[in-house]
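Exercise 7.
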Amino acid sequence: MYVTADNRNFSGLAGNLHSRDGTMKMFVEVLAIYLYSGYVNFRKSINGQLLIIEQDMAHSPFDEALLVFCNRHHDKVKALYWDKTGFCLWYKRLEQDFFRWPAAS
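Solution. The predicted structure, written as tokens, is:
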């Protein structure tokens, strides 16, 4: 399930989160994927993103969910999840393309 911070469902969005060749590898099993529909200043650390998850998205960062953030230019994404031993942060920067991202409401 793909849901934005304001609980709008974007079930078909997964294909749009990939680069041009459509490949994306998952290293963890998650029950849900939550997209933050606004943009995030990528200078924020894990702790800064945890505040967004708790305050803006009203989710627990310890849930079995992948929490995905995009920057203003939509050429970078960060994915954060809890793996029962600590937080994992994945970062992707596109060189020529951009991610199709839902607009903030």
